[in-house]
User: What shape does this take?
Amino acid sequence: MSLTMYQASIPSFLRMLGNLSAILDKAAAHAEAKKIDPSIFVNGRLTPDMFPLSRQVQIATDMVKGCAARLAGIEVPSYADNEATFAELQARIAKTQAFLESVSAAQIDGSEERPITVKFGSRELNFLGQAYLFDFVIPNFHFHLTTTYSILRHQGVEIGKIDYTGNY
Amino acid sequence: MSLTMYQASIPSFLRMLGNLSAILDKAAAHAEAKKIDPSIFVNGRLTPDMFPLSRQVQIATDMVKGCAARLAGIEVPSYADNEATFAELQARIAKTQAFLESVSAAQIDGSEERPITVKFGSRELNFLGQAYLFDFVIPNFHFHLTTTYSILRHQGVEIGKIDYTGNY
Assistant: This one.
């Protein structure tokens, strides 16, 4: 069976979102066990000029909902970006998972050369589907997932790389 | 043109290794400009029980040389893992890039269902080629690249996410 755009995207996105959800659960449990205000973790940053954890999770989920929608040629779901608690971040992850699950392989397969435009304020990036997935979505998704992990790790939450990858 | 195992691996690995090399160059230049001993960066860690930068770069490069070799069904090149300076880390990255460039699309394509075994001490992980690439190599590769970035960012090197992704 040869590789498809769907297989290269949605199943691993879902897998990594599941790992992210489990990491946030461990952080919430750690906060409760140590009587730490959970907002310290949710607002935690690696440096003052990097985004806080909540924004890292927002961008990571944006990357994959945007990818699923753009490769499928459907509208990108819009979220309010106002999550401020672990429960709200978990709800955002669940909503993203449900959206990814709603997109079928038939919608995404064959999108290798689909023209994709991504807008950020006044900037506009143009890709074909395959480069969009491999050069933009996957690096950005993992960047924000790993930074979420690092913020928590740096703040003493007991997690390890196996929580990130799910295997090693 | 439909997606292949080669396209899903080697070109993005080479691209990210180029970005990593540029990030380490910026860190070396920062050390020189600020009269900081570069070994402080090379040995820098996000927390005492996480690997130092040198090991992060070693594992990131291990991930992709292992992937190229295993998907192609050839021997994984063995490196001494003794890099202790930016110049030595750059040499390792260059050696990895040259190895990735030496593996052809014809060797890697069709490896979706190739059985892959990865050994770590007494542990053994078994995958088929496609799951090995997407569930193991890509998450681990980006995890160690982003952690390298975060160590330098945390130590005040002036880099941004565009240095990581190369586009946004």
